[in-house]
């Protein structure tokens, strides 16, 4: 409706009207390989490369058991309040930080999964790693609970009668109440299978008590077995008093 449109050249006006009449494409146009190369890498890809190949610029070492990984204070402090408070208060001895989550020490694969999440937000990990990292967002003070939500979903999705006892023990050790209750309910519903596993013999007594209580709450033994006496005493038909 502008005056400029009225004064536009005829060829351009026809092109605009034709494009206006064309339906919108259902899919965005494909990006040419040359254009994609010119676009470069994403921030996630850059930080992934920095984690694996930035050792020469590292200024701190993270250690789990006998495994050490070079890291960068600025990234750790930006992602976790735990590291920010540490680096603001003091410098770790020998520039080495021993990693633990609550009272447990993560495995080497779980340690690497933790670093991948800190550096570039990677959440794809095995179920075993989720056991260790479930409490990491709370312990390290991450800026959001995305990792905890994924770990909980990963555990609940992949728990099975074969690994439920291991998940129960890990959840109890890390005080993960939601996961522990979920594992106990699965044990109650799959008790005939779980009870035959050798691992149940190594459970601590408090966990065995929790299993028994869950079985009772789930109604596994609510209906008592009707027992009949072996021999019934027939009522006396005699009028004589029984002495």
Overall description:
Strand 1 and strand 2 (67-71) form a beta hairpin. This protein has helices at 3-6, 10-21, 33-39, 43-53, 73-79, 81-89, 108-120, 127-133, 136-140, 146-158, 164-173, 177-189, 191-194, 205-217, and strands spanning 60-64, 67-71, 96-98. It is 53% helix and 5% strand. It has a three-stranded mixed β-sheet with strand order 2-1-3. The chain has two domains: 43-158, Potassium Channel Kv1.1, Chain A (2-Layer Sandwich), CATH 3.30.710.10; 159-218, Serine Threonine Protein Phosphatase 5, Tetratricopeptide repeat (Alpha Horseshoe). It is mainly α. It contains 14 helices and three strands. It is flat, with a radius of gyration of 32 Å.
| Broad shape | flat
Which CATH architecture of the largest domain? 2-Layer Sandwich
Largest sheet: 3 strands, mixed
Task: Look at the structure and name the CATH superfamily of the largest domain.
Answer: Potassium Channel Kv1.1, Chain A
Helix content: 40-55%
- The whole-number mean of residue pLDDT values reads 83
**CATH topology term of the largest domain:** Potassium Channel Kv1.1, Chain A
Name the structural class: mainly alpha
Order of helices and strands: HHHHEEHHEHHHHHHHH
Side by side, the strands of the main sheet go 2-1-3
Strand content: 5-15%
């Amino acid at each position: 409706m502008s005056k400029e449109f009225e004064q536009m050249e005829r060829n351009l006006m026809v092109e605009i009207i034709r494009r206006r009449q064309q339906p919108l494409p259902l899919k965005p146009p494909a990006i040419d390989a040359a254009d994609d190369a010119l676009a470069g890498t994403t921030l996630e890809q850059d930080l992934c490369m920095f984690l694996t190949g930035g050792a020469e610029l590292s200024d701190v070492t993270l250690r789990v058991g006998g495994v050490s990984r070079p890291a960068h204070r600025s990234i750790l402090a930006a992602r976790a309040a735990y590291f920010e408070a540490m680096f603001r208060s003091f410098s770790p001895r020998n520039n080495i930080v021993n990693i633990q989550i609550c009272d447990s020490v993560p495995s080497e694969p779980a340690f690497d999964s933790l670093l991948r999440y800190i550096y570039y937000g990677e959440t794809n990990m095995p179920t075993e790693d989720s056991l260790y990292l479930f409490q990491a967002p709370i312990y390290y003070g991450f800026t959001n609970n995305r990792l905890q939500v994924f770990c909980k979903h990963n555990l609940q999705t992949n728990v099975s009668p074969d690994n439920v006892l291991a998940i129960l023990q890990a959840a109890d050790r890390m005080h993960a109440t939601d996961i522990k209750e979920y594992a106990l309910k699965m044990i109650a519903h799959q008790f005939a299978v779980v009870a035959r596993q050798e691992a149940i013999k190594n459970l601590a007594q408090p966990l065995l008590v929790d299993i028994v209580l869950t079985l009772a709450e789930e109604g596994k033994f609510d209906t008592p077995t009707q027992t009949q006496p072996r021999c019934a005493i027939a009522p006396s038909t005699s009028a004589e008093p029984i002495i």
